[in-house]
Amino acid sequence: MPIPSASTMHARSLLRDDVYRSLRDAIVDGTFEPGERLRDQELEAWLGVSRTPIREALLRLAQAGLVVAQPGRATTVAPVDPKNIGNAQSIAAAMHELAARSAVPALTDSDLTTMAAANDRLATALEVLDVDAAMNSDDEFHDVLVRASGNAMIAEVLEQVTPLIRRAERQRFASMAGRDSVRQHRAIIERCAVADAEGAAELSRVNWMTLKPELTAREE
Fold first, then answer.
1. What CATH number is associated with residue 28?
2. Could you tell me the pTM of the whole model?
């Protein structure tokens, strides 16, 4: 049996992941709205790829709760479901709590500087209501603890649940309420700086359970 070259396998993997990220981001940022039908031919033209990586990406998005796929029928963007987002938020909070608890003993001064800089960028983005920049800065802040935890499974779980949360979180970062995250991040950095793993873990959990007002508003 002929063996595929490693470079070919790597290229195919990158293509599949790039297609998934492009579709995921378009759903999260509202380019594709809830209920919108996703047609293979239109997606092929937009992304410049064949149907296979698109179907693979849509399957992953269905597993993440971002699209609704009906065999033999249409694939549509999933509605924003407060219950599903609340469930995802609970999982993300638990993962970030674990990440902080594991990461604090391994954090370096450089890590703390990176976290502080990301939080400063978050504050600046919120001042000018730049939602995309705010969300990117928030990701950069938390990614430091996730990487430093040394637990790859945390990142895998977060990759699954975070996009669902981000759909609702855009509303938070487009309002004054998002500034609470800046304050909470500073408190997390303070706990990390004095090697208080439990304190940082608890604050990280609380920080990821801040969407309740937005979810309640959607349910009403």
1. 1.10.10.10
2. 0.81
